[in-house]
């Protein structure tokens, strides 16, 4: 509530500063003989930014420290003297009184909180005033300082451009810093996990079966061998899915770029790309309810009796279909980017269309195609829902695609949502798994980008 | 319509076009062109940009087939066989009528592979030994052998522009064509590389029927013995190169070669 008011105040001050500075710059232009170094509106923006940015910074800091200041002043009140000393009760009472004072709650539940409501109300009002006055003061100070600089020869435009650039930089830093934060948290938890289970056991152990109920202080390292998970991930995401996605994606890209009639292509390409927009949960249903039973039935029909209704094959096949658009749209782009002159050169030699495609276009587009496949693999091995629904939960080190299998992502979900407490090695193993997955996909992405870049250099 | 100079000697036509028109959709790009192209002489097509000379050239090996909206009327005979209607298909046609493009377009493969491409797809070489011989012979004829014989496995795209264009000529020669079409083969090259290509055309002259489209009238005068002047989709005048340049019969030809337009 008071936050919103302060923000409104900041915007109002900014607007006033903008108008005033612009008017002043206009008056220079009307009266002076000198040319202005910047358009009047740039002077306006300069002053407005000098008002709004410091005020926003103040509001941010203020909203962080204001609750503490309010609390201190309430605790200084005699009514707070007989509060219970036990933290939990004490905080509950204080929170309750605060809620009533701000209007978030209609009345007190615990009568002991009642005497605190009034001190809270006065303190809140008091600090709201202080906040508003602080905002005004800072806004006026910034505005006045900037306003005094508005002169005909003042280079407001370059200053404003520089501030705009700084804000854009800040915006891009947010994404990068968030990524760094994610990595840092992963690393932190992973290190904790490796303090309990050795990395050797984790990376090379052949048996996966963490017990979240076991004694946390003394975990059994033989139950933390993640190799079956890595194998399951690679088998489903990088082998079965790619066996489906690479030929289908490549062939559809070739058809779309080389054979399809333009109007046909105009309809087909977006339709194919819709595949990428289908939520993975829906693919999961499809894999679990349609493909997996079908595979089991077929397997039984040809005499394989122990076929499971959850299988690596079902998950891999559906995942392959899901990533067809990744492969095909990258392949499509890179085949279309091969210069027409190459195609003409080959056709003029008497090569047929398919010879031209096989011997000139695909080899020339290969780096782009490989890049697309890499991105598709990194997408596939990070995929969770299909595996959760169709592949099963049993870690299984096998090459039989009809058996149930599990992947890194599935186990991350299982460990984090399991019954174990948060500092139990079983739960922490999720972070180690996530960290390995992150490193692998990062490596794949870097390789893919490199490969694609090399391809771009060759033709532009 | 086309003015043909009277003092043309009798030659056997390798390619003969009769009343050829080309349409792009509804637009007529070439209007009723008839010409006989002999093996004995180099034939140059000249004319201002957009006059249809390249379009006509591309009908001779059916490269216009790659453009969906293009349609060709009239008949074009190669040794008396209609290339659009007989049972000869484009693959066979293009093995007999090779083409060199405006911009050098070697494949992003090795020099050897570039030249071996055509013989491979047409099954000319029975053994690696045969293929080596074809590659060497083609590169020699294109005047490139001495420059590249020690680096046949280097990429064709790493050569200089002029070398790339000679590689493309070697590539065309490798399938042993009867006709070589050249679509402004020197427009992307510097004068020295251009001179080399022109020398090469002079050497190839007689062995293959050569048709060259060019913007440069000096080039037409240097390399060709027959010249056809195109303007607005029509072939205005055709004759011996010396006649066209010294004694044009048509006003438009005279204007063009004296530089009044184009």
From TrEMBL, chain B:
It holds the Pfam family ABC_tran. Residues 15-257 form the ABC transporter domain. One of its GO terms (cellular component) is membrane. Keywords: ATP-binding, Nucleotide-binding, Phosphate transport, Transport. SUPFAM superfamilies: P-loop containing nucleoside triphosphate hydrolases (SSF52540). The keyword ATP-binding applies. SMART domains: AAA. GO terms for molecular function: ATP binding; ATP hydrolysis activity; phosphate transmembrane transporter activity. GO terms for biological process: phosphate ion transmembrane transport. PANTHER family: ABC TRANSPORTER I FAMILY MEMBER 17. NCBIfam families: 3a0107s01c2. This is Phosphate ABC transporter ATP-binding protein.
């Amino acid at each position: 509530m008071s936050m919103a008011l302060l923000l409104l105040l900041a915007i109002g001050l900014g607007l006033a500063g903008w108008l005033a500075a612009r008017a002043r710059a206009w008056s220079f232009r009307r009266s002076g003989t000198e040319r202005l170094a910047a358009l009047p509106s740039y002077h306006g923006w300069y002053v407005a930014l000098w008002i709004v940015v410091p005020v926003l910074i103040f509001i941010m800091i203020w909203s962080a420290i204001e609750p503490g200041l309010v609390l201190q002043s309430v605790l200084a009140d005699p009514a707070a003297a007989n509060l219970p000393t036990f933290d939990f009760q004490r905080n509950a009472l204080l929170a309750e009184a605060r809620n009533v004072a701000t209007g978030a709650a209609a009345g007190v539940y615990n009568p002991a909180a009642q005497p605190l409501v009034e001190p809270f109300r006065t303190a809140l009002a008091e600090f709201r005033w202080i906040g508003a006055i602080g905002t005004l003061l800072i806004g006026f100070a910034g505005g006045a300082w900037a306003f005094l600089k508005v002169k005909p020869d003042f280079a407001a435009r370059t200053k404003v451009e520089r501030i705009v650039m700084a804000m854009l930089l800040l915006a891009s830093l947010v994404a990068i810093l968030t990524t760094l934060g994610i990595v840092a948290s992963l690393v932190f938890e992973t290190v904790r996990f490796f303090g309990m289970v050795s990395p050797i056991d984790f990376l090379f152990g052949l048996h996966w079966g963490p017990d979240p109920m076991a004694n946390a202080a003394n975990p059994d390292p033989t139950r933390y061998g993640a190799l079956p998970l890595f194998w399951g991930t690679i088998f489903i995401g990088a082998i079965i899915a790619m066996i489906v996605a690479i030929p289908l994606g490549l062939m559809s890209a070739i058809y779309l770029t080389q054979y399809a009639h333009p109007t046909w292509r105009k309809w087909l390409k977006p339709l194919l790309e819709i595949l990428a927009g289908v939520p993975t949960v829906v693919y999961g249903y499809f894999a679990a309810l349609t493909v997996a039973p079908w595979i089991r039935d077929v397997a039984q029909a040809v005499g394989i009796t122990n076929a499971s209704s959850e299988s690596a094959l079902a998950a891999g096949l559906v995942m392959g279909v899901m990533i067809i658009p990744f492969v095909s749209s990258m392949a499509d782009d890179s085949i279309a980017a091969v210069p027409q002159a190459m195609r003409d050169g080959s056709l003029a030699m008497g090569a047929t269309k398919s010879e031209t495609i096989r011997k000139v276009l695909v080899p020339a587009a290969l780096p782009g195609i490989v890049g697309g496949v890499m991105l598709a693999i990194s997408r596939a091995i990070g995929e969770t829902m299909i595996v959760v629904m169709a592949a099963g939960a049993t870690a299984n080190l096998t090459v039989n695609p009809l058996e149930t299998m599990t992947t890194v992502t599935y186990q991350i979900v299982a460990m984090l949502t399991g019954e174990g407490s948060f500092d139990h090695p079983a739960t922490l193993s999720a972070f180690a798994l996530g960290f390995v997955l992150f490193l692998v996909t990062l490596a794949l992405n870097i390789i893919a980008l490199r490969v694609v870049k090399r391809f771009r250099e060759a033709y532009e | 319509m086309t003015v043909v100079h009277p003092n043309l000697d009798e030659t056997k036509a390798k390619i003969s076009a009769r009343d050829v028109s080309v349409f792009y959709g509804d637009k007529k790009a070439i209007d009723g062109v008839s010409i006989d192209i002999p093996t004995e002489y180099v034939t140059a097509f000249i004319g201002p940009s957009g006059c249809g000379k390249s379009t006509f050239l591309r009908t001779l090996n059916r490269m216009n087939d790659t453009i969906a909206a293009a349609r060709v009327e009239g008949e074009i005979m190669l040794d008396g066989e209609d290339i659009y209607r007989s049972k000869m298909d484009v693959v066979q046609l293009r093995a007999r009528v090779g083409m060199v493009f405006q911009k050098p377009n070697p494949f992003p493969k090795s020099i050897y592979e570039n030249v071996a491409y055509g013989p491979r797809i047409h099954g000319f070489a029975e053994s690696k030994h045969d293929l080596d011989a074809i590659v060497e012979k083609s590169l020699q004829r294109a005047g490139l052998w001495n420059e590249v014989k020690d680096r046949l496995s280097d990429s064709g795209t790493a050569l200089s522009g002029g070398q790339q264009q000679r590689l493309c000529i070697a590539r065309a020669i490798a399938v042993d064509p009867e006709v070589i079409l050249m679509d402004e083969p020197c427009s992307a090259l510097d004068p020295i590389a251009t001179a080399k290509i022109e020398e090469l055309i002079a050497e190839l002259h007689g062995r293959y029927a050569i048709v060259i489209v060019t913007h440069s009238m000096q080039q037409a005068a240097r390399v060709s013995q027959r010249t056809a002047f195109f303007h607005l989709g029509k072939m205005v005048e055709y004759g011996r190169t010396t006649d066209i340049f010294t004694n044009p019969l048509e006003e438009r030809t005279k204007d063009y070669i004296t530089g009044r337009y184009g």
